[in-house]
Amino acid sequence: MLTLTTPDGTAITAATDVELASKWLDHQYGENWEFGLIPFDQHDAMNSTIEELALMRDGILSGYTVTESTPIATTVLERFVAAFTWDTAGDVAATLNCGEVDALADLLRAAGATDTAALWIERHAEGDEEGDAHHPGSADQEAGR
């Protein structure tokens, strides 16, 4: 996934450089920018815009950025959440250190599994000693982290 961010903070996202170029042209000139142009001119505009995006990606056009990310597929997250739930939390959570369980809980929350994240913290806290971040009665535990 590609994201173009403009100096004013506008973010435009697309799957390919061609799609991003088209959306960037739409943003600048309106959705019907290509009407009235002959195919050669449309092609030329797209090529010029793809080159412009490459300059943005390389940091040559000040204030603009083009970044690439690989989103995690929803089905992968759903499978992860299903696998890392009740039984697994009971067996594994207490063996993780506080940073590890926090990272896992953050991932679960990002996947929309807030109850499962809380379960992992709760099961981890059962093995924490006094002074540990998740020990019952600690500030983090009281804050629900």
From TrEMBL:
<protein>
    <submittedName>
        <fullName>Uncharacterized protein</fullName>
    </submittedName>
</protein>
